[in-house]
Input
Amino acid sequence: MGRKVTVATCSLNQWALDFDGNLQRILTSQSEQANSLCACVCVCVCLLRPIMHHNVRYNCRVVFLRILLIRPKMQMANYGNYRELRWFSPWSRSRQVEEYFLPRMIQEVTGQETVPFGDCVLSTKDTCIGSEMCAELWNPRSPHIDMSLDGVEIFTNSSASHHELRKADQRVSLVKSATTKSGGIYLYANQRGCDGDRLYYDGCCMVAINGDIVAQGAQFSLDDVEVVTATLDLEDPQPEHSQTRRWTAVKVDFSLSSGDDVFLPTHQPITWQFHTPEEEIRVCVFSLQAGFLLPLSGGVDSSSTACIVHSMCVLVCQAVQDGNVQVLRDVRRVVGDEAYCPQRPKELCGRVFTTCYMASENSSEGTRGRAKDLAAQIGSAHLNINIDLAVKGMLGVFSMVTGKLPQFRASGGSVRENLALQNVQARIRMVLAYLFAQLSLWARGKPGGLLVLGSANVDESLTGYFTKYDCSSADVNPIGGISKTDLKSFLLYCVDQFQLPALTGIVAAPPTAELEPLTDGQVSQTDEADMGMTYSELSVIGRLRKISKCGPYSMFCKLIHMWKEAFSPSEVAQKVKHFFRMYSVNRHKMTTVTPSYHAESYSPDDNRFDLRPFLYNTRWTWQFRCIDNEVVINAEAHRDLVGPDRSGRVQTKISKLCWGSGRM
Output
């Protein structure tokens, strides 16, 4: 006879300061656990709260049948997107417990005056339960290691781990690793939904035992509450450990297992189903006002945003068909029709999504046609707007005041004139986008306004390759944390997933802003030519800048090896210096960039993730001089070795010298 226990974990769509809604979702999760006959200590993931103890504020987890334990967080998340030390102090007294006097209102409910407060475990009649909180799992000295050595068999983790592309594998690996090394059961719960800022929490609650995942929650879902249960046998073989220093144990007069469990089936290991990056982009949805307005240029970026909205409509229709009452209620509120029931994604898209192509005299028929075709295929309400009249009016005001009329470079104008004429087009598009967002529904006799969607990718933000206060300035930018490379892959995925053949031509076309005059009716301006590097090169540079924390010189030292097959050291030097000039000159744009969903680990978001100066010495004199010195040394070494001999044998030696050391 074993010791079989039924355990549960959950993902809840909790929202800061939504006390009524948060309480209701907690109660719903408890009801679902009860319906699953979950005979376990009720460790509520969402009963995380700030608690003052000795005038110090701690981030705490409250464990209860009645209140059994208040467990303060010991390792703070104070990096990347998190600033936990702004609000809380860590509990630094490992394995120590104190008495905590409950507030009078709680005493009246529970009949308790004091409860244990600190780092301890729960000892029931049949097992021992330990707790980790969020970032503690990711720490090299995770509490579960020592707890398992002291006989803890069930570990619980209440987490708020945000989504990034390709991150789910890290979570699953950590949980599997914890129970592979230590044995036992691991219950992982994670927040779902938006934090009210730039992060999206993607759920992924799970149950593991002895290195195997046995129950998996959805990574993305429109359900506000998801409960995952599993029945497991604590007698399953576990690694043997030598005893370590003991934890204080709170004794609980309760048993998780029953004596009559011979015929109770247990959950078996499963294979985790991971989403591809393209699928992750597709299913990260966002909320509605009365709908969205998107300036649709016919390029990769705005088309990606359009496909994300279309994907949202697909998910909403599926949720309604599956009987999700809350989603149906939300859709009816958005469209202003209490009798409405969405049947097809294309039809729903026509109700909540407006796209507009904002043409100028510099726009090509190719981009106009691609935007029109995509809008027709996804079902958006599409507008064709010509901005030339507004541009001429703006330039007319300038000419009337100054007596001068700027010209494009193609017509003999200066670089400054050329840039100003591009910027005025871009900024007029932003103004018109907001005008149509506010009044287009009114013009159709419908209530409400639209949220303006932006579409600047993470690589353009890195270099500042966008006009400040242009169409990148919007209410929300769904793709602001996604690279151009991933967006192209996402569009190719959507071609087959949603039957959108217009995307094939969009991906094949060279990225262009179309702000300069056409040449014989054809586009003469491309993004990569303007930026001086390709998007794939920018993605590599972005990761080195943020993840590897490289400045100009250290980045050069890495890239001469990474790019040795494509570029000489002097060419690498030019690209690195060009990037850092663009980055430093344009960094100020990140202080006003549109809020975007955080999806990439090298995001330059200035609001909370990538906190850096926005005013730089753009000459980088010392760093660039170090790079130039290395290029000179390499050239001299090359010249000395080559001499008059141009044979392949000598060239091989040169290659080894030039690329074989960090100095070169």
Observations:
- The chain has 20 helices and 20 strands.
- Residues 309 and 353 are 8 Å apart (CA to CA).
